[in-house]
Amino acid sequence: MAYSRITLGILLLVQMAACSNDEPYPPEGFSSIAELDASIELDIRYIGNNNFLGRPVAGYEGAACILSTPAASALVQVQRSANEQGYSLKIYDCFRPQQAVDNFVRWAADADDVVMKASMYPSVPKEELFSRGYIAERSGHSRGSTVDLTLVPLGTHQPQLDPFAPWDCRASDEALRFPDNSIDMGTSYDCFDVLSHTAHPAISAQAMANRLLLKELMEAAGFENYENEWWHYTLQDEPFPDTFFDFPVR
Ligand SMILES: C[C@@H](N)C(=O)N[C@H](C)C(=O)O
Ligand SMILES: [Zn+2]
């Protein structure tokens, strides 16, 4: 009798595991950009060390861009328009699970963990990154229709780099910033600084023209820029405006 109960229990566990493996991925209502348009370059920063923490972030199991299906389809339109002008989109982050945001919050609470401070937030005290609007505790990314991205010349690729070298994300000389095949946007991605505010006047005329080109292309497809970060766009007509999802990125 005891043996058959154990057997039944094991069978139930096996069945539960099989069911959970059968769940569709990405979940209903979401799409993977690589499946819709493989020409869009992916440089998903939070899966590795090249980010403001200097280490992989919780919830990133693959270098994928998952977005709500309307946001993903709109981005494919943007890619077509960018291609006509000799550029491709390059994506740094898309859907961001709540566990990743919680990881940012834990990281921010550790005042001793400042490995990337000099290169990525040199002029902002770490404890003010949230209050100054550079990172959010409830992020639009977790609603699935927000994307961090740039424009790259067609045919180029992200160069290899040492994320821990003494880069300066605000340097006017591009060679001193993190190497990136992005066109010059005035600062590096995730450079938490006033110079990253989209309309900040102290960047070069070329960098401002490049930011405005990205903005025009994105707005034409229904996205809205966040004024504190030239790279951050949200689909205005987002399908899940009140839901913060927590499935992993893969
Ligand atoms: C962390 C940065 N890439 C970003 O997306 N910031 C905004 C404010 C957010 O966290 O939603
Ligand atoms: Zn963002």
UniProtKB/TrEMBL annotation:
What cofactor requirement does the entry state?
Zn(2+)
User: According to its UniProt record, which residues of this chain constitute the active site?
Assistant: 229 (proton donor/acceptor)
Decide whether keyword Cell wall biogenesis/degradation is in the record. yes
* Site residues (Transition state stabilizer), renumbered to this chain: 96
Per the record, the domain of life is Bacteria
EC category name? hydrolase
Which reactions fall under this protein's catalytic activity? D-alanyl-D-alanine + H2O = 2 D-alanine
Binding residues for Zn(2+): 141, 148, 232
Q: How and how many cofactors are bound, per the record note? A: Binds 1 zinc ion per subunit.
**GO MF annotations, alphabetized:** D-Ala-D-Ala dipeptidase activity; metallopeptidase activity; zinc ion binding
Q: Work out whether the entry's keyword set contains Ribonucleoprotein.
A: no
Which EC number(s) are documented for this chain? 3.4.13.22
Matches recorded under InterPro entries:
A_A_dipeptidase, Zn_M74/Hedgehog-like
Q: Which UniProt keywords apply?
A: Cell wall biogenesis/degradation, Dipeptidase, Hydrolase, Metal-binding, Metalloprotease, Protease, Zinc
Q: What does this protein do?
A: Catalyzes hydrolysis of the D-alanyl-D-alanine dipeptide.
Per the record, the similarity remark reads: Belongs to the peptidase M15D family.
- Would you tell me the protein name for this molecule? D-alanyl-D-alanine dipeptidase
Source organism (scientific name): Pseudohongiella spirulinae
Q: Recite the lineage of the species.
A: Bacteria, Pseudomonadati, Pseudomonadota, Gammaproteobacteria, Pseudomonadales
UniProt lists the gene as ddpX
